[in-house]
Here is the input.
Amino acid sequence: MRDQATAATSAWHFWIDRGGTFTDIVARSPDGRLLTHKLLSEHPGRYRDAATAGIRELLGLPAGVLIPTGCIAEVRIGTTIATNALLERKGEPVALFITRGFADALRIAWQHRPRIFDRHIQLPEMLYGEVWEVDERIGARGEVIRAPDAEALRRDFGKALERGYRSAAIVFMHGYRHPEHEQLAAQIARQCGFTRISVSHRTSPLIKLISRGDTTVADAYLTPVLRGYVGQVRAELPDTRLLFMQSSGSLAEAAGFRGKDSLLSGPAGGIIGAMRTAAAAGHHRIIAFDMGGT
Here is the structure.
């Protein structure tokens, strides 16, 4: 244990906020010095990724030189990649597969009317592109009312692939508690060639169909974008412990960082930092202000 602690303190630590406009880095060197660095998040002429470019600059490495990951103990990153992808509608096109009879359930949603006298209601744009109804049903107590037809599922997944979809959201009635039909659909989707499959019983095991469905669709929409970024960072830091800030303020290993947990990844770090700083100074009631460039 002492050897591990010595190795951790004799190596670099990096804490990075990868925002939409700027990327801010705080680093602790092996000799205990704290260093800060700031650079544009997007600068195609100079670097591919701001986080790894900042690490390279703090280590004094020229562009293009491999980062010696043996000298880095850990990298922690908070990012607004998924947040901006959602706001700008730049996620992965999603095909929604839902129990027959509920094709428009997520569109109807809760029917909230915050402006009850508006004559022209502007509904939010849905994150999924098209809906396929699956002829299946499990009752609330787990009784199989209608088993899904595997061949029909194959045909529907094939049609979705032909229309350009590679990300699927699977949301079945009572799937949160009885996931057998969702598991079968996910297996067939994987066999057909979908590269991203979000199933509601794993993504958001909640009793309410609307909230469970919305979260599953958001996960299918954002995770491919997120995985692309995580893979890009991992390629430059192959053997480094890499952690990402989640919306909850907790940290996730790079392999387990998912779209549904990333929407507040950037702001969460600021809240945690403000709380810890205030507590260290003896203040327990504070107002924190976080203004990003975007």
In short: The longest helix spans residues 209-236. The chain has a mean pLDDT of 92. The chain has nine helices and twelve strands.
